[in-house]
Predict the structure.
Amino acid sequence: MLYRLLVRSRSRTVARRLLACLQVACVLFLLPPPDAVLAQDMGRVTGRVVDPMNHPLPGASVVLEGTSYGDATTEAGRFDIRAPAGSYTLRASFLGYTSASTSIVLPVDSTVAVTLTLEPDLLQMDEAVTTATFNPFSKLESSVAITTLNAQDIDTESPHSTSDLLKAVPGFYVESSGGEGENNVFARGLPADGSFRYVALQVNGTEIYEASALDFANPDNFIRVDATIDRVESVRGGSASTFASDAPGGIVNFVTKRGGPQWEGEVRLATQTHGLYRSDLRLGGPLSESVRVHVGGFYRRDSGLRDPGYTANRGGQVSGAVTWLSDRGSVQLFGRYLNDRSVFYLPVPYVNEQNPTSIPGFDLNTGTLTTDDAAVVTVPAPTGQPVQRDLRDGIHPIVKTGGAEVLLELGAGWTLRNTTRLTDIDHTFRAIVSLNNPVDATTFADSIRARANARSGLGATDYRYRRATDGSVIDAPGRLNGNGLVVETGWWYNEKPMTTVLNDLQITKTLSRHTFTANVYVSRFTSDDFRHWHDLLTEVDERPDRLDLELLAPNGEVVGNATRRGFRRFGANYLNHDGTGWVTALHLGDRWDLGRGFYVEMGARLQHAAFSGTVEGTQRVNLDGDPATLFDNQFQTGTGRVFDYDHTFDEWAASVGLNYRFNDNLALFARGSRGFRMPNFDRWMAGTDDDADGIPRGTSETVLQVEGGVKYSAPMFALFASGFYTRLTEIPFNDQVVNEEGNTVVVQNFGSSRAIGTELEMTLRPSPRLQIATRSTIQNPVFTELQFVDPQDGELDFAGNRVKRIPLVMFALTPRYSLGMLSVHGSWKYVGDRFANNRNTFVLPEYSIVDLGAALTWRGVTVSADVTNVFNAHGLTEGNPRVDETLSEEEADAIDVFMGRPVLPRAFEVSLSYDF
């Protein structure tokens, strides 16, 4: 299977060479070490690993340093190691705690008993950093800004989605109000129109898919947080630009569990007030002394935190890994399968810009314009033939990914690591999307009637609304649902099959005070896109019905139909695109130990990328030739004419960091870097007749960053504080706006920005039972250059304006208190005000969210209860992107009913888990 997937690439020679390298590495791995000897006289060391309150730490790693002898602690914290008699250093480590060691002497045929007490590592300063670094070093020894979230942190955050978990990372502003997937992460004030534009999402050090910001394919769609996740490492800025493609803002790395020397696992069942039923399961352990295995996953069904009237989310994920160990290194085979459907929430109506409030007939906390009335629809395909679409499938990725990692100690200071990953994604996107703001039903009908009369001479003098499902007449549309409003929304459908084949070869040489590293990275990836959108007319209700609007002559005869089955416009947008990309990168680095606590880290990345593809041209036609059927007069379809593009890019990134460790508790760091982001397929999807000589190439973006900070770690107090300056140039903006004709069009602009900010993580432990953590970000991202061409107002200059959707201030306070078997925790998260648009005419007000939780653990059984958004805050994460960007101050002030996407409402969840 590996061979079949690889040979799908452009060059079979490249595929065969990758396989040959992997085969050679495996042969070297299987060779026995030349100096292997059989131990004759054995001794034994037993004992416990506990925390300061004498509670056992199950799963802690206990090793005799410099040997392969070790054990993992049991549920009671006990370990048992047999090794040749002699003198050793016994060391115990456990994620979230500082390691501890002691000297021991193992006598022949005797047992030594030892108890090791581990102090909490409040910010995981003592943990090895594996993301965006040459070799694993602790945070105190690394010159990068990094946040580590262990299993306990993940449980405390109680995230609703993959992106929701990243709110725990300072420097990141996360919009996770969309649901399970397609959410947005903004890093260090870098402006973006959404997605993970400047952040790479990795699993065990490699991307699932090469591009991190494609339309309707954000990387959080392709992985879920479940019990198989061991920890999450998140690097902001710094060396990220040299360790991943197009990631100057940072890298988020999900590190999965792998089997240990003893069998262990977890079973978890959860339910929630919104109809959630979820089960998680994982199991890991040894198949033999040299073979470890780990497998796990989840399945769930629920109605969604904003119930659309059908099962909103359903599906699951399963992943596994098999690891072969030897004195020379390890070989791991891994795989993961995700098949999950989830609803996507978009802006909904509200009133009062400064204090968002529900309107009559629509609850801002629970309402959604995603509705079961539009769940299964029949619409014309681009050929004009009818086709059925099902909204209940929502965002539906089917992800199959797998590969191998080989780690070899070659001797004489040489180390080889090779990772091969293959990913196949069958991805579709279906959602109800906000277009225009709601308007009075009478005003809307009058405007449609006047426009139809002017264009087609229908002679309509009146109108009539009907419910599209049963045809019943609405007698008083001005009083409909107590608000008298109607709204146009988009029924958007996108197909996006995607593939990635990558290989990352790393060779490391340790020489005196230097650790040299060379990486060769090759990736081939594809993205095919089919898009056909339609516009709906609905009432404004928590789960609205589709509406039909008929235009009437003076005698009551129907002379025009503005809609059919509730569809205001068939074929609102059409796209047919195929794209292929190649990335080849060389990364060279050196970690230089200057002595006396000084370390210098230097790295550079040279990257070549090639993109090629085809885009079909588009045209608008009157589908049935009848001007009185307004719903298909602007039907967009393909022309059959194909436009080609074939572009190459050469870019470089570099980063230099200095770290000075004063002592075991205190360190300072500073770093400067240059990163980049190349254009991707989205840049070339708009082929038109204007592009007969080729679709324009576009340019790369450049990011310059300077940062520095202080790190302090002690048993009772830990601090990680950093400051940063970023400058970004050649920023492309693809804004989807509604023009005067009511059509959704893409407006592209370019600009530059800069941001100055600080990031802070701090944890205080005044007693063994109480821990208080805080994190904050203060930043000021502004445009230094940006011109926007408004379809109605012409060219606008936004230089000096604040970057949209990014707050100046974010703060979180998270206390945790332990009462032996019972622990309680809470959090208060504050997000400052933001502008909904780069024109800075529409404000999204500040908001706060409070979460609470508790857990009771006894003999491996844990009962947890969590309440998120306790007070049902109405915080808005975005306005209406299709409208807000073009609003002047006068237009914004004239709006009575707004559209915005609020944070997810209150949810109460109870879970029962068993660790064994």
Q: What stands out?
A: The two ends are 35 Å apart (CA to CA). The domain at 32-117 is CATH 2.60.40.10 (Immunoglobulin-like). The CA atoms of residues 436 and 742 lie 9 Å apart. The first helix runs from residue 2 to 6.
